[in-house]
Amino acid sequence: MISATTMRLNIDPILIQALQEDISSEDVTTNAIVREKQSGQVSLICKESGVLAGLDVFSRVFELLDGDTQVEAFANEGDEVRQGDLVAVIRADLRALLTGERTALNYLQRMSGIATHTRELTQLLSSSKTRLLDTRKTTPNMRIFEKYAVKVGGGDNHRYNLSDGILIKDNHIDAAGSIAKAISMTKEHAPFVRKIEIEAENLDMVREAVRAGADIIMLDNMDLDTVRKAVQEINGKAQTEYSGNVTREQLQEIADTGVDYVSCGALTHSSNILDFSMKNLKKID
Fold this sequence. Notes:
six-stranded parallel β-sheet; alpha/beta; four-stranded antiparallel β-sheet; 20% strand; 12 strands; TIM Barrel; Aldehyde Oxidoreductase, domain 3; 2 domains
């Protein structure tokens, strides 16, 4: 569940912007048909099977339009829902239900699609020690929702943003002059409580990263034979992460190399939506 504080501080402003995008002055169609306040209800129906994520966000859209909104949920975050399931009944002013429908569904469908994709991939790793991570390859202004959906699906979050964690990539290394210099300069600047992760593209870079005291070494776009050698070379002196165009078909082979983590940008940039629909709208007294 998303806490009320998180909702108010971080999510409400984004939801309001999304509603403003859809309502520049008024909802002309709704205002023409529903001329005054009228209570109503509508059913949220699942149209394909998957993992539910974002019901709080979906509900909040209507609450922002009508403070008296009530949502009766028949499923919880992370539940597997089936095609045809009644997921919730929403009761609010008819105008709020009609005006907020598309915005609310956009969030729910996107988040549930990510959670479904994540659940499928984490199940492939269930027999290994390797954990699945997301990346910063998120939709602009959707990161808080997309990374939350990854967690609902059973994955782990990599750093949330540039302030959240240290990751020294190839261009940082070029700017510093070497891996050793990049790590040394980072240790001088960053708080001591921060772990240092660095990207390595070959075994020589792995060895240099180990000598320089990296906490986490990202094995970037290496073939799997090299990944196995890198894991043996590191030998527990640092945690390991595999990254680089990870596909469903590769996951088990990647896990078999012994890496601690595998990061997958596709979780947030290439997941399909999970389809839901709002149906059977009616007036209530």
